[in-house]
Specification:
single chain; alpha+beta; Diaminopimelate Epimerase, Chain A, domain 1; 2 domains; 5 helices; globular
């Protein structure tokens, strides 16, 4: 298959040294979440992916990304999805990362326009419609509301749900003024969510079917332009509390807009779809000495 990504952007060659393994990659973004995607379906790359992510994700010294996604072979699905955060930790799941991986897999000839792939959070499905990519998320669990926790700024009421990874939701009437880094860091590491911690989403409702979301991401350890699992968590908690009523829920994030569809029966949420565009930024190869 020809390289469709290269025709959309530039081709980049980065060198870290005079010797090492050349690693082809594609950089993609979904609603502002950007990722370095690597096809390892032939299992020919035996890198330390944690170290690779820590080396390549920084903007000034690496390629620049929120994380590294590696596609590996699987006997029962189209591929295994592995994602490594900028700090080297391996995450269970990432919604926008999964959408980027689905389009990447299709462009690489790994999968068709509908596919299934394995994540640490379970097997999920995806479908491709041009540059719009939808992924069927694992059913959310652990939903808990009205949790009061103490922070340096006083008591905050948060709500919790796991949408493949844990998320704590905080509602606000002034989302643009929220100190996302400072408050997000405190909640992310709060003893209530120990030992693994949680992502933190700040949510402002806009009418009966729309919300604005800003997210502090665990692993990135800062605010990102978007978070797919966070968009899902925010939409579900907003609906569960009656703050939005329309389905699908429109989610507006710094990096772009996402749409969350789901079914709810007797307070139980299922058939959750995360939908939105994905764009290819550039392709290239990096010489890795790891």
């Amino acid at each position: 298959m020809s390289d469709p990504a290269a025709s959309k952007g530039m081709r980049l060659l980065m060198k870290e040294g005079n010797s090492g393994l050349k690693v082809p990659f594609t950089k993609m973004a979904g609603a502002g979440n950007d990722f370095i995607l690597i096809d390892n379906m032939k299992s020919s790359l035996t890198l330390n992916w944690q170290a690779f992510a820590m080396s390549m994700c920084p903007v000034r010294t690496g390629i620049g990304a929120d994380g590294v996604i590696v596609l590996e072979p699987d006997n029962d699905t189209d591929f295994i999805f592995r994602i490594f955060n900028a700090d080297g930790s391996e995450a269970e799941m990432c919604g926008n990362g999964a959408r980027c991986a689905a389009l990447f897999a299709y462009l690489q000839g790994v999968a068709g326009k509908t596919m299934r792939f394995r994540t640490l959070a379970g097997i999920i499905g995806a479908r491709i419609d041009g540059d719009d990519v939808s992924v069927a998320m694992t059913d959310p669990y652990g939903l808990d509301t009205g949790i009061d926790i103490s922070t340096h700024g006083g008591v905050k009421t948060v709500h919790y749900v796991n949408t493949g990874v844990p998320h704590a939701i905080v509602f606000t009437d002034r989302i643009d003024e929220v100190p996302v880094f400072e408050l997000g860091c405190l909640i992310r590491r709060h003893v209530r969510f120990a030992p693994s911690g949680t992502n933190v989403d700040f949510v402002e409702t806009e009418g009966s079917g729309s919300i604005r979301v800003r997210t502090y991401e665990r692993g990135v350890e800062g605010e990102t332009y978007a978070c797919g699992t966070g968009a899902v968590a925010s939409a579900i908690i907003s609906h569960h509390l009656g703050m939005v009523k329309d389905i699908p829920v429109q989610v507006h994030m710094k990096g772009g807009d996402l749409k969350i569809d789901f079914t709810v029966v007797d307070g139980r949420y299922s058939q959750v779809w995360l939908m939105g565009p994905v764009n290819t930024i550039f392709t290239g190869e990096v010489v890795a000495n790891l």
